[in-house]
Amino acid sequence: MKNLTPLAQNYVDRFAAELPQLPGHQDPATAQLRTNGLNAFADLDFPNHRIEEWRFTNLNGLTKGVANDAAEPGETSLPNPEFDAGHTMVFKDGRFDAAASQLGSLPTGVELTSLAAELDVGNADLIPMAAPQQALVALNTAFMEDGFVLKVAAGVTLDQPLRIRFLSTNATDRPARHMRNIIRMGDGAQVTLLEEHVSEATTSYFTNPQTSISLQAGAVLRHFKYQNESIAAFHLALTECDVADDAIYENFSLSTGGKLSRNELTTKITGSGAKSILNGAYLMRGKQHCDTTTLTLHTVPQNESAQIYKGVLDGEARGIFQGKIHIAEDAQQVAGDQLSKALLLSDRATVACKPELEIYADDVKCSHGATSGELDEDALFYLQSRGIDEKSARKMLIDAFLADVIEEISDDRIKAYFSDIATEWLDQV
């Protein structure tokens, strides 16, 4: 076995002792699934800069060990706002909290359970048995403790948004949460999902949520994610989605929290007429680091994808955008667009962008672009010359910069919710 980073070695060393406390430990198939995950992780270790997809994000601060220390004085996350959803499922410190959840009115054809409950009754087949090829997926497979499992039958529409809230508090001494989420939607099913990762804590912890989504023909999933972890936390998330004929996957991620966060999205378009719409905004200050990495795979003809990501960076914050659109050899008549823009409010803030197109077909329409810069001084001067103070003028320009990407959100309630969060962040600039 190769020499591992300290945190990776710690996971390997304590696996045998922790296995009897993990969900489904009594089921041989689940135990084997976890062992396969651990063995794969021991071979891979945590990602490092020698891996191309990770060369802009250094995990040394995590892999040397997550210290359960308070954040530096004066560093606080945004207050956690409220959203009045029709249905709410709450996980507190990595475990399903039935008392805080409101799930009694889910319609026929919608099943929502916790992963821990599924594993405890032997449903290990929800997770692929093959050894994972990605380090964080392998680690999650070995130590997954809970998460949500959503199954929606063909033709069923959930009229109200479903809210999944992952809450971290100071009431636990466990410095990691390995959540595994599964979404399976039948033909023509429709759901709006709000996924929140929020914190009441000021401590350092590590969240490793992994989400697997399958959309059958004509299904529509509007998936909105808000990340507002502790300012001392590490948040490394992966979402993978398969999109069949005429299905639509819409994802919008808004990130304001975390010491180091990464939102990775892999969308595999396997049907004609399908759409993948990936948008987002990240608002970072201080020494925060936010990485957005996307991979869109067009495997068949006649489908489309679009991406717009915008970042606002203040202080010494660092933003990363890596977006790749891959079009297979036989995937003709495909449209793929990608755009990344970053606004730097400080001369110490930095951004790295790496948009990519990998095209093996000749009948396609694709574009990509990335820009970064400071506030327009002429526009700022103009507003001030009209009697607007400098702070208000700056806020107006930043708000205008973000407005067009937030406008891409198809659900009006979520749009208003995310707009209010952005406004609150801007009030602190």
Describe this structure in words.
- The chain has 429 residues and is α/β, with parallel strands linked by helices.
- The protein is built from 8 helices and 21 strands.
- Strands 3, 4, 6, 7, 9, 10, 12, 14, 16, 18 and 20 form an 11-stranded mixed beta sheet that branches.
- The N and C termini lie far apart (48 Å).
What order do the helices and strands come in, and which of them pair?
Elements: H1 6-18, H2 28-44, H3 60-63, E1 87-92, E2 95-96, E3 110-114, H4 115-120, H5 135-143, E4 148-152, E5 162-168, E6 176-177, E7 180-185, E8 190-199, E9 206-207, E10 210-215, E11 220-228, E12 234-243, E13 248-255, E14 260-269, E15 275-284, E16 289-298, E17 304-313, E18 318-327, E19 334-344, E20 350-359, E21 364-373, H6 377-385, H7 390-406, H8 412-426
Provide a short characterization of the protein structure.
Helix content is 21%, strand content 37%.
> Which band does the percent of strand residues land in?
35-45%
Tally the helices. Answer: 8
Helix-strand makeup class? alpha/beta
Average pLDDT confidence is 94
Give the beta-strand count: 21
State the shape: globular
Spell out the key features of this protein.
429 residues; alpha/beta; 2 domains; 11-stranded mixed beta sheet; 10-stranded mixed beta sheet; 8 helices; 21 strands; globular
